[in-house]
Amino acid sequence: MVATQLAGHVDMDEGKVRDELQVAANFHFSEAYSDYVCGGPWKSCMIWAAGGDAGDGLVTNYDHSKKPSITGYGEQLPYLRQVLEAHFDLEHLNFARLAVIEDSVTFPHRDLLELKDVPADSRNSHRVHIPLVTNDDCFFTEDNIVYRMRPGEVWFFDASKIHGAASLTREPRTHLILDFTDAGRDGLARFPVDPAGSVPKDRIVSREPVSESEREALLGLAGVINMDNFRDIAGIVIKTHYRKDGGDDFVWSTLEEIALRSGNEVVREKIGHLHEFFVIDRSA
């Protein structure tokens, strides 16, 4: 897995992309990973997958022994298929999906934890993000850095590190997400790759520090948190991270402190379980 970085740019016809996303709007989008979000759903639709089967969107539910190929949905998107064929080595492409998020944030998490039992030669090892539709209220985060991706950019993305995504608007954000088997970074692309080595400074969002009064106000949510609203409160904490700098591990440390102060053992156990599941071990 290579470091998260801007790798290059793919010229795409905006009109053709828009037309095909209108076609895709009639597809069935899976919400298999919506447990990862607070707010609206995180939806995805496979256009390339094991056996050419669109499946249910949950990568562990595919037969990884079958050769990946275009799905029925992908067949209906000839321009996006052309983009894939022209710019990437499809021999090593495992999955390609359209991913849509709006008015929602994800819990900070690590991916690939659930793929330990998948054979190494068919396991997702490298991820690429290509924003198709986005706006200035859509963000990613990694290592307490908040940054934006722009349409048409190609990003190598280290999904094994703790990361998250946010759409702080009702405008849908759509990315093309590609997962490759381990071919090495240089074996993935068929276009001029000019990796930045990291997130470029002009993509990083400048945030003021969380003030002590703001931090205490968040911790004061301990007085109202319960199993009916813990996800809403988690969303407030996560959204704060995208607008203010609370330091390393701000989201999980704040949620754990809120749960501890609440005195609600059920909530404390729930937050602890989510932290374990999203960051440490997903086998259970």
From TrEMBL:
<dbReference type="Pfam" id="PF05118">
    <property type="entry name" value="Asp_Arg_Hydrox"/>
</dbReference>
<dbReference type="InterPro" id="IPR008035">
    <property type="entry name" value="Pro_3_hydrox_C"/>
</dbReference>
<dbReference type="Pfam" id="PF05373">
    <property type="entry name" value="Pro_3_hydrox_C"/>
</dbReference>
<feature type="domain" description="L-proline 3-hydroxylase C-terminal">
    <location>
        <begin position="202"/>
        <end position="282"/>
    </location>
</feature>
<dbReference type="InterPro" id="IPR037037">
    <property type="entry name" value="Pro_3_hydrox_C_sf"/>
</dbReference>
<dbReference type="InterPro" id="IPR027443">
    <property type="entry name" value="IPNS-like_sf"/>
</dbReference>
<dbReference type="InterPro" id="IPR007803">
    <property type="entry name" value="Asp/Arg/Pro-Hydrxlase"/>
</dbReference>
<protein>
    <submittedName>
        <fullName>Aspartyl/asparaginyl beta-hydroxylase domain-containing protein</fullName>
    </submittedName>
</protein>
<feature type="domain" description="Aspartyl/asparaginy/proline hydroxylase">
    <location>
        <begin position="17"/>
        <end position="181"/>
    </location>
</feature>
